[in-house]
Predict the structure of UDP-glucuronosyltransferase.
Amino acid sequence: MKTHILLLLIFAIFIQNGQTAKILASVYSPSLSHQLAFRPIWHELASRGHDITLITTDPEENAPYKQIDTSYSYKIMEELGLGSIVSQQNSSKTSSFNTYINGLHKVSDYQFGTPEVEFLINNEKEKFDLLMLEVIYPGHMAFVDRFKAPFIGLVSLDAPPVIHRAVGNPTNPILYPDTVMPFTSNLTFKQRVVSFLANIGFYVFSTYFFYPNEDANVAKHFEGYTIRPLNDIQHDMDMLFINVNPVFHKLRPLGPNTIQIGGGTHLKEAKPLPKELEEYLNGSKNGVVYFSLGTNVKSNLLTDDLKETIIKTLGELPYDILWKYDEDITGLPKNIKVSKWIPQQDLFRHPQVKLFITQCGLQSVEEAILMNVPIVGMPFFGDQHKNAQIVLEKEIGLVVDRTNVKKEEFKEKIIKVIEDPKFKNNMKMIAKLMTDVEMTGLEKAVWWTEYVIRHKGAKHFKSYGTTDPFYTYFMLDVVCFVLLVLFIVFYVNWRILNFFVWLVFGRKKADVKKKTN
Ligand SMILES: *[C@@H]1O[C@H](CO)[C@@H](O)[C@H](O)[C@H]1NC(C)=O
Ligand SMILES: *[C@@H]1O[C@H](CO)[C@@H](O)[C@H](O)[C@H]1NC(C)=O
Ligand SMILES: *[C@@H]1O[C@H](CO)[C@@H](O)[C@H](O)[C@H]1NC(C)=O
């Protein structure tokens, strides 16, 4: 018996050794939700014996892998006042945009310059079998040329068109508008024009400004190594993992190198609620409305007007309100309870939670769907407007415009979503579809990661056209040529016809003229 176990153990170690890899993972964005989207993947890979080094702005306590702490990135963003841009209190939008881009650039400079990252870059003996890099910001793709390893791109939402294009996916702006566009399907003419121009705008911006600007950071920190322009490196992506779920998100065709890992990948195991919170929920007479704007929209960024509207509206409701708010606040109506931290996923599992008022961050919306809590959306930025649009289309909630929402409208919508069973029923239906899958997002992510490790890349899955210039991709040259040929043919025919007409009628006329003369 004992030898059996020993043999099994040796066998297990043998198998693990056959597959384990040294992985460098990097999630650049100073945003908790971006970091959380991938955390279960690191845990699962680590438990399968892979050796992970993760560069992260939100290191986790007791993580089973090595972490390089870049949390100072938040400080940099804060010092540049980038919070106010998030809430768009700042009226000068272009200067905000510049500040934002500048801020991202500074963060990248700092991250490359932290001693541990510097050591990775400059230690010639350092080797990795696989790179897993968040690609929504291009800088860290420089590791691809430094370590000459296969490379999986990660995006915590849907990828921008530039990234879809880099792996060979179609990027038609009418059928698949950018993630930050607030419309999804059946675009009006005006929306089509906006989406088309935005697509070109983003492309030009990325290709000629954003990426080259970041090349400067790379040149500074990778001295002595030959690193190609980031615009070129991105085409080496072996696989792309996007946090998309085809039930929630709009369908779009994707190549076999693009894996959709969305649909609650970030969900944690259910835990009992803290006793005090459970008592509060149990004791509520008409049920509880949960209000949270997520981790990126800090409460102190709400305008005074909006704050007043929110408090007045919630105060008049016949429900108890649980508000996740990160500041101290006094003088609230009696039915509002404020808390700085709430275990959201576990809260949603409690039957007394009737409604979720949310900024429509992807992960929050997914949690609400999977636990059947209908939504009133109040989107702020990024993909939130699009998610809110989907909430409306799927009829799993209603949406208010935070820039001019009035108390009556807000209140009406809250009550409607709670009282009309349609919203909850639709949510149940969508949750069923989302969870009836052959493999969960996490299982797919892990399986495909090990696939890339086994085959040292997956370039064979890349479709054509990723480096075609714009005019060949959209067939502009061909269309122009065909139009020109058609024009010439018609023109020549028309001239010939004219000539015959002249032969027959023109000469007769001339004859008539002659005769009368
Ligand atoms: C708006 O942004 C500009 C440029 O970053 C900054 O100087 C200004 O203080 C901001 N204004 C407000 C009200 O936040
Ligand atoms: C878009 O238009 C099609 C065809 O007219 C229709 O079936 C579909 O429901 C529309 N989708 C939305 C989201 O309005
Ligand atoms: C809350 O109610 C549930 C169901 O009635 C019960 O099982 C649970 O013990 C209650 N919890 C508390 C803290 O009262």
Q: What stands out?
A: The two ends are 127 Å apart (CA to CA). The chain is about 50% helix and 10% strand. The chain has three domains: 18-265+440-470, 275-435, 482-516. Residues 275, 278-279, 282 surround 2-acetamido-2-deoxy-beta-D-glucopyranose (ligand 3) (CB under 6 Å).
